Amino acid sequence: MTATASSGDQPRARSASAGLQFALRLIALAAVVAFFMSVGNVNIGAIGQGLGYALAGVTVFLTFRVLNFVDLTVDGAFPIGGATCAILIVNGHSPEFAIIAAFVAGALTGLATALIDIIFKIEGLLASIIVITAAYTVTLHIMGGKSNIPLLGEETLISRHSKNFRNWLVEQFGDQMRRQSTNLLEIMIFGAIVIIVLLILYWFLRTEIGLAIRATGKNEQMVRATGLNHYLMIAVGLMTANGLAAIAGSMVVQQFGFADVSLGFGLIIRGLAAVIIGEVLLRPRSVGQLLVAAVVGMLVFDISRAWIFSALDLPTTDIQFVSALVVLAALGAPRLYDRWKSYRQRHSS
Q1: Are 298 and 279 within 8 A, CB to CB?
Q2: DSSP 115-155
Q3: What is the pLDDT of residue 264?
Q4: In this structure, are residues 60 and 276 in contact, taking their beta carbons and an 8 Å threshold?
Q5: CB 230 within 8 A of CB 68
Q6: Averaged over 162-171, what is the pLDDT?
Q7: How far apart (Å, rounded) are the C-alpha atoms in residues 289 and 127?
Q8: Domains of the chain
Q9: Does the pLDDT at position 7 exceed 80?
């Protein structure tokens, strides 16, 4: 009896140890990032922007890591979600309703990719390319044929509270906080949304459906052998993932103050970089840690890009080039490190 209890305690002890190590790495990373932001004079707006895009990183994690499905639909779901949010806000709907509607629009975009893959037996990469090609036109139709919709003067999650929050901040901490009030508000609101979504997603992935989705990504044959419809699991997984991308699009639209038809250009690369950065820096083990790592990876990506701009005093026209360099560093550094380790092992033996 004692031996059984002892063996049962070992997995829990290992899990607790892994969780503690993850928390320590997260704290150390936060300290390092804060130091570089301070030294490089990086505006805290980079954190708000990273939180706005964070759920796009979670989308890529779900499709590539959980479902094992090569999906580019995020590049289409993101602007569709942003366009849906913008057009509803312009027509007098609340920002909360607009975000929910954006999720539905993104989920339908993911469903389109799933149906093309399931019905026509076209592999995920080509199916998602077809969808994002059509998504450009769909986004234009949602926006009433316009390529850009401004939200100037409209009530968004940010504008609704900005005046009162600014006044309170100035009263409490002085006039020097006036310039940072909007950035702090974005961090608070977007941070709360991201935390709520992560908690719901963590719960969902531990339900029977969520476990079936995770099993589908690991071994489709095993899922079929248990009598589950693995096609249904793929569809639900893609709908969930791209619905989150659409929520990210709706948040970024409210942050930028406009919706644009090309807003999601290259987002898949950014999401991949976020996932890899989070995994390399935090070495997550559990599903919850992997979700947090994807969000942290997106934050590090945006802060790194802002740090490069600040350190080199680059013009805004170089933003895509700098983004490409950050992505290259995120994707290439782990491979160079592995090659260096293998080189040392060969020459040491």
Answers
A1: no
A2: HHHHHH---HHHHHHHHHHHHHHHHHHHTTT-SEEE-TTS-
A3: 85
A4: no
A5: no
A6: 92
A7: 30
A8: 25-348 (1.10.3470)
A9: no
Residue 117 corresponds to which tokens in the numbers above? 């893959």
For the chain, give the mean pLDDT.
Answer: 91
Are 200 and 210 in contact, with CB atoms under 8 Å apart?
Answer: no
260 φ/ψ sector (left φ>0, alpha ψ -120 to 50, else beta): beta
Is residue 156 exposed (0-12), middle (13-18) or buried (19+ Cβ within 10 Å)? Answer: buried
Cα 301–chain centre separation? 11
- Residue 322 pLDDT: 84
Query: CB burial class (10 A; 0-12, 13-18, 19+) of residue 253?
Result: buried
Q: Which residues touch 335 (CB under 8 Å, ≥6 apart)?
A: none
Nearest to 250 by CA among 45, 236, 242: 242
Q: Which two tokens stand for residue 308?
A: 């490069």
Tokens 């005046």 — which residue?
Answer: 163
Q: Where are the beta strands (DSSP E) in the chain?
A: 148-150, 258-260
Closest CA to 59 of 101, 17, 106, 104: 106
Q: 81-117: per-residue pLDDT in tens?
A: 999 999 999 999 999 999 999 999 999 999 999 999 9
**Cα distance between residue 35 and residue 20, in whole Å:** 23
pTM for this entry:
0.92
Contacts of 144 (CB under 8 A, 6+ apart): 87
| Six-digit token string for 220 | 């489709």
Instruction: Using the Cα atoms of residue 96, residue 154, residue 253 and residue 87 in order, give the sign of their dihedral.
Output: positive
pLDDT in tens, 185-206: 999 999 999 999 999 999 999 9
Measured CA to CA, the distance from residue 115 to residue 236 in angstroms comes to 11
CA-CA distance, 4 to 14, in Å (whole number)? 16
What's residue 98's pLDDT? 97
Picking from 290, 198, 285, the residue whose alpha carbon sits closest to that of residue 16 is: 285
